[in-house]
């Protein structure tokens, strides 16, 4: 079934424009190409991610006030889970923790970046359209329009201030994860028709036994 799904998706989503072709969060090779161990780890990680229908995904997360070991281990856990799930970003909300914390790693060579209490300080007027997926929406890949560049103010795990300027995939991941902290999903950023199509893809993915 997973095979059929993949083929179908490939046919349905020809990207004609020059935008980066990425699958946010699920930026991994096709599932059927994973070795059994990696796949088992991914499935176990995905099983711990809250899925559409869980009310926590619609809640607004609250700012972190204490920068202590508890926060540190929460961030480490998020980074590990994101890694195991083969994702490029994860918001605490997706694990049922309503803290304004997100992690991302766009390039496998770089360390995981954690943003605590992130605020979009500036977004470009220029927008880009690219395909996104979401660990909370298995099987869904939709084209989402977002500002191409952003400037974000946040704190790191120690509570020190960070200012990050990002573009391309990095800017997209940060915006996607900040959306999670506000209870917003990619389904809210697409047309009604695209949403219907996405819901169908998610149903099919569930029926195919994806975690
Ligand atoms: Zn997501």
Task: Tell me about this structure.
The chain has one domain: Peptide Deformylase. The chain contains 5 helices and 7 strands, in the order H-H-H-E-E-E-E-E-E-E-H-H. The protein has helices at residues 2-12, 36-47, 69-84, 168-181, 192-207; strands at residues 89-91, 101-104, 113-123, 127-132, 142-147, 149-155, 161-167. It has a 5-stranded antiparallel sheet. Strand 2 (101-104) and strand 3 form a beta hairpin. The longest helix has 16 residues, at 69-84. The radius of gyration is 16 Å and the shape is globular. The chain starts with a helix and ends with a helix. Bound molecules: zinc ion. Residues 25, 134-136, 176, 180 line the site of zinc ion.
Spatial arrangement of strands, main beta sheet: 1-2-3-6-7
Low-confidence stretches: 1-23
Instruction: Compute the average pLDDT.
Output: 87
**Coarse shape:** globular
CATH topology: Peptide Deformylase
CATH homologous superfamily (4th level) name: Peptide deformylase
Q: Report the strand count.
A: 7
Helices and strands, with pairings:
Elements: H1 2-12, H2 36-47, H3 69-84, E1 89-91, E2 101-104, E3 113-123, E4 127-132, E5 142-147, E6 149-155, E7 161-167, H4 168-181, H5 192-207
Antiparallel strand pairs: 1-2, 2-3, 3-6, 4-5, 6-7
Helix pairs in contact: 2-3
């Amino acid at each position: 079934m997973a095979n059929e799904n993949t083929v179908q998706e490939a046919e349905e989503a020809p990207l004609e424009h020059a935008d980066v072709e990425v699958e946010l969060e699920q930026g991994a090779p096709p599932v059927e190409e994973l070795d059994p161990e990696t796949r088992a780890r991914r499935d176990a990680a995905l099983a711990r991610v809250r899925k559409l229908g869980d009310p926590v995904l619609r809640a607004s997360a609250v700012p972190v006030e204490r920068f202590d070991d508890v926060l540190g281990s929460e961030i480490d856990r998020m980074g590990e889970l994101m890694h195991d799930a083969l994702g490029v970003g994860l918001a605490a909300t997706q694990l049922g923790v309503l803290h304004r914390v997100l992690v991302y790693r766009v390039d496998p060579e770089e360390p995981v970046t954690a943003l605590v209490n992130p605020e979009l300080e500036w977004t470009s007027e220029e927008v880009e359209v690219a395909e996104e997926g979401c660990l909370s929406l298995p099987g869904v890949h939709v084209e989402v329009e977002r500002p191409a560049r952003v400037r974000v103010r946040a704190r790191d795990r120690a509570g020190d201030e960070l200012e990050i300027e990002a573009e391309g995939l990095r800017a997209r991941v940060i915006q996607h994860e900040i959306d999670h902290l506000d209870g917003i999903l990619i389904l809210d950023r697409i047309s009604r028709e695209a949403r219907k199509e996405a819901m169908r893809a998610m149903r099919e993915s569930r029926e195919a036994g994806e975690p």
